[in-house]
Design a protein that fits this description.
Strand order of the largest sheet: 1-2-3-6-5-4
Number of domains: 1
Structural class: mainly beta
Number of strands: 6
CATH class: Mainly Beta
CATH superfamily: predicted glycosyltransferase like domains
Order of helices and strands: EEEEEE
Low-confidence stretches: 84-90
CATH architecture: Beta Barrel
Length: 90
């Protein structure tokens, strides 16, 4: 068994989300596969070009500034940014 390397435990879920970029003028729908205090794993529909940093909005209305931390064929991992950090340009 591989030990858990995450700082924050994740919760598995299948919830709709929305990736907002260019100050809300661009949007991509996604599915949130799991969520933790520090980030999330998202599934996107097809081959979507995604900016390095964006706002992740949950269906509950909560939103988080986020940056891509890894990409896989079927999902991407994002890290939530501290509000004081400057995100990468879109």
């Amino acid at each position: 068994m591989v030990p858990e390397r995450r700082k924050n435990p994740r919760t598995r879920m299948l919830r709709r989300g929305r990736i907002l970029y260019r100050r809300g003028h661009g949007a991509i729908d996604c599915v949130i596969l799991d969520l933790s205090d520090g980030g999330a794993r998202l599934a996107l529909n097809g081959l979507t070009r995604l900016p390095g940093a964006f706002e992740l909005r949950l269906e509950s209305g909560a939103s988080f500034p986020a940056a891509v931390s890894y990409r896989q064929a079927d999902a991407i991992g994002v890290q939530f940014l501290d509000a004081r950090e400057d995100p990468a340009p879109d």
